[in-house]
Structures are given as C-alpha cells and as structure tokens.
Write a structure and sequence with these properties.
- The chain has 2 domains: 150 residues, no CATH class; 49 residues, no CATH class.
- The protein contains 9 helices and 6 strands, in the order H-H-H-H-H-E-E-H-H-H-E-E-E-E-H.
- It starts with 15 loop residues before the first helix and ends with a helix.
C-alpha cells in the first residue's frame, strides 16, 4: 500500500494531467465550501487551460487515473467522504464529455447517476466501492470489508433524509430520482416534473 500509485503511472514527460489536477484543486477550493457548481466551474477552467484532457483519449485516461488515485489516497487518509465525493462527480463529467459537441454525451446510465447521488449524499460504502472497482490494486479492500456489513444508503429527493437504499423507491418516469414515501414523491412532483420529462427514456 505504501508508495502504491493505484494504477496511475503516466508516461515520462506526460505532465499535463498533473498540471490539470493542480488547477482543478486550486479552483475547487477557492472560497468557502464545495458545491456542485464549484466542481463544474473548476472543470470548466481546467478545460479552458488544458483542452487536450477532453479532446485526446490518452490525456483523458491519465487525468481520470490521477483523480482516481487521489481519491483513493484521500480515503486512506480518512478525508471526509463528502470532499472525496467531488472527485467522483469530476470523473463522471470527464468521462461523459463529447469533444465534438463540447457538451455532455448524456451517456451516464441511470444507475450511475443515482450511485453518484448516493455518494454525494454521504454513503461512504458506495464511495469506497466506486474507487475500489476502478483501481488495479487492493489498497481499499480492508476499508471496504469493514463497511460491507453496513447497508448502502441514499437520500430522499424531497426530504433529503438518508435512508437504506432498499427503502427508497425510484421514480418510474425518469429512473433518476428516489423517494422514501409516496407523500415525498407527491410533494416533490411540482419541482421534479420538468426534469422528469427531460430524462424520461
């Protein structure tokens, strides 16, 4: 575990990924707190300065590998899960970017979308599983084994309370929102209606 690169060993002279992540972290932590908007802003600035990260598959691969390795190290050093979760949002965004249209491909699956929601809501088990499945080493096996006995959790789309995932019901219209009760789903419908239509398959 000590000195492990967690699958991130860029070729010699391949510095753009490290430079990109440095800029990304600087912008991410500028000001108070970290939000989805700040993650998006940091990625946007990173794209302006290092477009090759999005436009070239090799650069994209190593940028994602760098973020994954950083996420593993943060978990191993017991950084708060919500801080680590920002890296999962960044990884999904880079993977889902279309260099031709300069927009999201929209190929993120409903399952991955909800998984990322659970991660950002604070499900540590899902967070560790996300990184553990992506690295070639066994550095997170011990952490995951300790958490595997705990149930996976997610947040209700309306009341935001954390519940066991088995107690949450997914919206049948879009498969991208989940609720702990029919009352919560009904109360959230006026706000969710348009997004539900947009995401309906």
């Amino acid at each position: 575990m000590e000195g492990c690169q967690h699958g991130c060993t860029p070729p010699e002279g391949h510095t753009s990924c490290d430079e990109f992540t440095k800029i990304f972290y600087e912008d991410l932590h500028y000001g108070n707190g970290i939000t989805d908007m700040k993650v998006a802003r940091a990625l946007s600035i990173g794209h302006e300065k290092f477009p090759q990260i999005w436009n070239d598959d090799t650069h994209r691969h190593w940028a994602i590998a760098r973020l994954q390795a950083d996420g593993v190290n943060m978990i191993l050093h017991d950084v708060h899960p919500r801080s680590v979760a920002n890296l999962t949002a960044a990884i999904y965004a880079i993977e889902d970017f279309d260099p031709i249209s300069m927009t999201s491909t929209g190929h993120t699956t409903d399952k991955d979308y909800l998984k990322n929601r659970d991660i950002t809501s604070g499900c540590e088990r899902t967070l560790i599983q996300f990184f553990r499945q992506r690295i070639p080493c066994s550095c997170l096996d011990e952490k995951y084994a300790a958490l595997k006995v705990q149930p996976k959790t997610g947040s209700c789309g309306h009341c935001k309370q954390m519940k066991e995932r088995t107690a949450l019901k997914v919206c049948s219209g879009c498969n991208r929102e989940q609720y702990c009760s029919r009352d919560c789903q009904a109360a959230h419908w006026p706000e969710h209606k348009e997004k539900c239509k947009q995401n309906a398959r």
